[in-house]
Amino acid sequence: MLAYLIRRLMAVAVMLVVIMLVVFCIFFLIPKWAGVDPATMYVGKQSDAAGLEAVREKLQLGDPILVQLWEFFKGIFVGRTYSAGGDVTHCAAPCFGYSFRTEQAIWPQLTDRLPVTLALAIGAAVLWLLFGLAAGVLSALKRGTLWDRGAMLVALAGVSLPIYFTGLLSLAVFSYGLGWLDAQYVPLEESFSGWLGGMLLPWITLAFLYAAMYARITRATMLEVMGEDYIRTARAKGLSEPVVIGKHAMRSTMTPILTLLGMDLGALIGGAILTETTFSLPGLGQAVLTAISVKDLPVILGVTLVTALAVAFANLLVDVLYAVIDPRVRLA
Asked: How far is Cα 297 from Cα 306, in angstroms, rounded to an integer?
């Protein structure tokens, strides 16, 4: 297990380097190839020549590309200093960039909003796993029954309906109509009950979309697994149905579910833009949407890095869970 874990950690370390290299190319190298001055992407096209030159000097955009790449990597690990003439700005590590529009480092802005996005993603993930897996397993075991058809119909609706529609509908019914839940987000440090009430609708709305998808995948995988020889052998040995389902069938069923969970959870940590916008949650999704509207490129770069890193670490967790569920994976 230790050797497997070391191999996976090394693979993730290489992947993180590749991710940062790709992000650097997207934001600094490709615009040059396209004939776009990267400085205009940081201060806007309406800035005067002096402002563009100052940003160009601060970001060292005139230096060789390898020097820029080194400064980019170094900033993430040890911090970075932006200087132009007598104007010196220090960005503490980890430096994910500096916004010359707001005159603020990006990392503190992201860490202020990250807890909201984490709470949304983890809370919704717990709900969609509970209900999605339960619905999928029951539908597979009761194939062709009224329950199966009804559950899959609801799942189809969940997959088909866009999040902004179900979000606005839930607000109209449960918040504005019935008054059961508060639509106003309250920070956790101010009131736990207020925070919980403000997060319930976003959790349920987001979980409805993913639970539907997970239910369909669980059902399809479970139906395939239940026809395997080892399941018939387990039943022939006299094992009870709960043991056959829980110990044998679910172990194989969880493999594709974990793969999907790693991708979905990692992407959501980077910001659930539609959900956060619908419910006015001050998370990373709302931050990147605001940054796009005002063309604040460093914020977009920072959220892109956070999303990519979150997906990488989420998949590392999935690989560890693979080894726990199926010991054969450790030999790969």
From this structure: 14
Structure tokens at 262: 């790693």
Whether 288 and 299 have beta carbons less than 8 Å apart is answered as yes
Q: Helix, strand, or coil here: 91?
A: strand
* Residue 211, in any domain of the structure: yes
Verify that 50 and 178 share a domain, yes or no: no
Residues 87 and 156 in one domain: no
H/E segment holding residue 136: helix 106-141
Q: Are residues 47 and 156 both part of a single domain?
A: no
Q: 290-308 pLDDT, tens per residue?
A: 888 877 888 888 888 888 8
The encoded tokens of residue 28 equal 């600094």
> What single-letter DSSP state applies at residue 171?
I
Domain that holds residue 36: 2-95
CA distance 91 to 99: 10
**Cα–Cα distance, 176 to 96 (Å, whole number):** 40
Listed residues 70, 95, 120: the one ending a domain: 95
Cβ contact 317:266 at 8 Å: no
Question: Which residue from 239, 241, 259, 265 is spatially nearest to 137, judged by alpha carbons?
Answer: 241
Tell me the pLDDT tens digit for each residue of 189-224.
888 888 888 888 888 888 888 888 888 888 888 888
Sign for the pseudo-dihedral over CA of 117, 122, 128, 129: positive
Q: The tokens of 70 are what? A: 């080194």
E-strand ranges in the chain read: 80-84, 87-91, 98-99, 104-105
46 backbone dihedrals φ, ψ, rounded to 5°: -85, -5
Name the nearest CA neighbour of 202 among 182, 179, 188, 178: 182
